[in-house]
Amino acid sequence: MKLIIASNNAHKLIEIKQILGEEFDEILSMREAGIEHETVEDGSTFLENAEKKAREMAEISGCCALADDSGICVDALNGAPGIYSARFSGVHGDDAANNRLLLEKLEGVEDRGAHYTCAMVLARPDGSTVEAEGYLCGEIGFEERGHNGFGYDPLFILPSRGCTTAELSAEEKNAISHRANALHALLKKLQEEK
């Protein structure tokens, strides 16, 4: 059975292959499958966006498709930036601007609890889906630390480790990430179906 990932992110593909590799004969990115498509992410939750991407990819490819949507949710901001994490500052993918805005909004705030969320959906050509979510809890620091990772990683502190996720190696981060947690939850559900 073939699985198409609704993404061309090489790092994401490696992580997915490591965790789901035993469940599928072949796992391909959209590019590897020869598919060019962009889903309009207009859902109101991570799960709605992931499901929409997965269903569209399953329909286009005629294969099983996997999609995720993720972001950071800050307690003091009522869960913001949430689904708008990548474009929090108004420009999609401007990590520096997003981090600056987050620090501005948390100026003088003591409760800096936050979590990363990842919603993962596997859609099948018959229309059925398997859904899972994963989380990574921590807090927002007062300044950026570390040069690994991306997005909010330089601000996201893991109290149990005393460092930001940007101070972890890629291997360390992938072992505990919200995406890894969602993938393991999804794998468990797939194995329970057998």
Give short descriptive properties of this protein:
alpha/beta, 24% strand, globular, 194 residues, 7-stranded mixed beta sheet, Maf protein
Characterise the protein shown here.
With 194 residues, the chain is an alpha/beta fold. It has one domain (2-193): Maf protein, CATH 3.90.950.10. It is 31% helix and 24% strand. The chain is built from five helices and seven strands. It has helices at 10-20, 46-61, 95-105, 170-176, 178-193, and strands at residues 2-5, 26-29, 64-74, 113-123, 129-140, 156-158, 163-164. A seven-stranded mixed beta sheet has the order 2-1-3-4-5-6-7. Helix 1 (10-20) packs parallel to helix 5 (178-193). The model has no long low-confidence stretch (mean pLDDT 95).
Number of strands: 7
Q: Major sheet: order of its strands?
A: 2-1-3-4-5-6-7
Could you say which structural class the secondary elements and strand pairing correspond to? alpha/beta
Q: Give the name of the CATH architecture.
A: Alpha-Beta Complex
Q: Compute the CA-based radius of gyration.
A: 17 Å
Major sheet summary line: 7 strands, mixed
- How much of the polypeptide forms β-strand, as a percent range? 15-25%
Fraction of residues in helix = 25-40%
Shape: globular
Assembly state: single chain
Q: Given the structure, what is the number of helices?
A: 5
Q: How many domains, as an integer?
A: 1
CATH class: Alpha Beta
Distance between the ends: 14 Å
